[in-house]
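Weekly structure sync, notes
Attendees: PL (lead), two postdocs, one rotation student
Agenda item 3: pending single-chain targets
PL asked that the sequence for the first pending target be pasted directly into the notes so everyone works from the same version. It is reproduced below exactly as submitted, 164 residues in total.
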Amino acid sequence: MKKLLATLLFGMMFFGLSAQNKSDLPNITLKNLDGESVNIAELNNDGNPFVMTFWATWCGPCVKEHNALTEVYDEWVEETGVKIFAVSIDDARSTAKIKPFVDGKGWPFEILLDVNSELKRAMNVSNPPHTFLFDGDGKIVWQHTGYLDGGEEDLYQEILKISK
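Predicted structure, written out during the meeting:
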């Protein structure tokens, strides 16, 4: 009986932990602006929340959203430890324009390039801007499509709810 109980307890712990650690991030590899490969399934922020935005250089609301996020980013990082990953869905023909575009805007986020829309499809993103908030375990806790002036405040309130 003790052996059965111990086996059941171990099984519950094992399956509970493995289910608990499963993130909502797909196993897809993208490049960053330095040409380095980044496995999306391994994205993390040391247990702090992180944001993933899908954007494009041709998307006016995306640019407005990132400009607004840039204004508050340092403060958010200091207060919550949040990190933003901005995923460009521009196609391969536009890749050379992305780094100068981002540098010109002064965006402090880590930029990832989804030139084949692989991640976009995996995350069921139809139109940019599309913003996801992940908890420290990589689980989606909030998402939003589109951008209106001041929309970053809604995101911030959601970040505060899950910050440690």
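Discussion points:
- The first strand starts at residue 29 and ends at 32.
- Residues 80 and 160 are 7 Å apart (CA to CA).
Action: rotation student to compare against the earlier draft before next sync.
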